Amino acid sequence: MDADVVIAGAGPTGLMLACELRLAGVDVVVVERLAERTGESRAGGMHSRTLEVLDQRGILDRFLAVGEPQPVGHFSGLYLDFDEFESRHPYPLMILQSAIERLLEEWAGELGVRVRFSSEVSGIRQDEAGVTVELSTAEAAPATLRARYLVGCDGGRSTVRKLSGIDFPGTEATMTALIGDVELPDLPEDYVWVRRCAGGDWSAIAFEPGWYRVITSEYDRVVDRDEAPTFEQLRQSLVRLAGTDFGMHSPRWVSRFNDAARQAATYRDGRVLLAGDAAHIHFPAGGQGLNMGVQDAVNLGWKLASVVRGRAPESLLDTYHTERHAVGERVLHNTRAQSALARPGAQTDALREVFGSLMVFDDVNRHLRGMLTALDIRYPVDGDHLLAGRRVPDADLKTSDGTTRVHELLHCARPVLLDLRGSAELAKVAGGWADRVDVVEARSEDEHWPVPGVGEIPAPAALLIRPDGHVAWAAPAEGAPGVRALRAALTTWFGPARHG
């Protein structure tokens, strides 16, 4: 084997997955068809759950030093408030994808990830023992890599998905949007946010001093995806919508997107898996795409590592599809709704006014922000505790070594059995998984923990936390801890116990 896992695509999803695998001691190679980084800005931010994921790995400070927190978000251009009660990082972080990729690539280098540029997947052959990946490279002869698994993180036009024959059903585009980073010397305002017009809408957002991200959206105009976008097309589109180009010049980057929404029928075909845009594409409303890809990677990484290292059965990989496909369906659903809510016309204007009036109610705002931030995701985990399947709150803890936080316990990407009542019985049960699960005894600084979409709940007596930060099992604050259920959860998620 040339590697345990080959990852196609060195974007945020592929790099995050590579780092997750390396934290677990898995040998990984990332292959990227591009010859080098383009420097294109692309996506522009990260939501609360993604920031928490980075905090769980101890690298969030790198991103906070580059990005800028924003006090509000939006649903189809309608402002959405955030609640500091729900997360330590309640606000979206404005940070360009180019910076995200640079920081993740630096971290990957520290962890020993191998990245091969100018290497495009051209063929895949699976067998019982592994997968052979054929590559087109800058060299004269094609290259091959042999690995146990291949993960396609190679974008919406994923070669890995196509070669694997995985269906990509969904809905066709109904509009065309152009986006570019340009200078706008004649713009009379500091920024323009979703200015609605007869044919669509436009925005001009200042990302850097003197530079604006211009976005134009025109409905019932669908352009061939294979047609390369140009600066002139962006300029003409802005003229049609705004009546002027505001002296637009010096484009750094121009791209195009639309509201087509598609999702892979399965995220796994044997030894081939999909993550990020290779598994789902959608209208980029609310900035959910990059975030969903990073969270795909964190959900898949520890599971794939456990299987590769022989610590869990291969069936664990099926839970990746079960959990993340449902999340993708929900994002496609809400982005279709946002696209419909953005269409021009008097009827939609009236709908937006009514919808906006509803968003001032706390319950509506809470529901929408939970959807956009992914803080309210609950995976189908056995157990009736309110925390079961949800992401664990980042509670303050006191241990024998001092104070810490729940998310700090996850820096090594290992499962944690957090005992908040000092139960010798729980530690005894966990002994069979001592090679895979860290047992931490602590006390919660707070009697109640906040849970997005639920409110405050009593701090649990104990909980089993997966490496992705979701709760696999929790014991109630009062009553018996339920060791049988704990043993079942340990076996389900981390394989059979080992003794001796």
Short description:
This protein folds into three domains: 280 residues, FAD/NAD(P)-binding domain (3-Layer(bba) Sandwich); 84 residues, Alpha-Beta Plaits (2-Layer Sandwich), CATH 3.30.70; 99 residues, Glutaredoxin, CATH 3.40.30.120.
| Overall pLDDT metric | 95
Number of beta strands: 30
Distance between the termini: 31 Å
Q: Based on Cα principal axes, name the global outline.
A: globular
CATH topology of the largest domain: FAD/NAD(P)-binding domain
What's the Cα radius of gyration?
23 Å
Integer tally of domains: 3
Total number of helical segments?
12
Residue share in β-strands: 25-35%
CATH superfamily of the largest domain: FAD/NAD(P)-binding domain
Low-confidence residue ranges: none
Cofactor: FAD
Organism: Streptomyces yokosukanensis
Keywords: FAD, Flavoprotein
Protein name: FAD-binding domain-containing protein
Q: How does this model look, in words?
A:
With 500 residues, the protein is an alpha+beta fold. The chain folds into three domains: 3-170 and 262-373, FAD/NAD(P)-binding domain, CATH 3.50.50; 175-258, Alpha-Beta Plaits (2-Layer Sandwich); 396-494, Glutaredoxin, CATH 3.40.30.120. It has twelve helices and 30 strands. A hairpin with a 2-residue loop joins β15 and β16. α1 runs parallel beside α7.
List the helices and strands and how they pair.
Elements: E1 3-8, H1 12-23, E2 28-31, E3 45-46, H2 48-56, H3 60-64, E4 68-69, E5 72-75, E6 78-81, E7 93-94, H4 97-111, E8 114-116, E9 119-126, E10 131-137, E11 143-152, H5 159-164, E12 170-171, E13 175-183, E14 192-196, E15 200-208, E16 211-219, H6 231-242, E17 249-257, E18 261-263, E19 268-269, E20 272-274, E21 280-281, H7 289-308, H8 318-342, H9 346-358, H10 362-373, E22 396-399, E23 402-405, E24 416-419, H11 424-430, E25 438-441, E26 443-444, E27 448-451, E28 455-458, E29 462-465, E30 471-475, H12 483-494
Parallel strand pairs: 1-2, 1-11, 2-8, 11-20, 24-25
Antiparallel strand pairs: 3-7, 4-7, 5-6, 9-10, 10-11, 12-18, 13-16, 13-17, 14-15, 15-16, 18-21, 19-20, 22-23, 22-26, 24-29, 27-28, 29-30
Helix pairs in contact: 1-4, 1-7, 7-8, 11-12
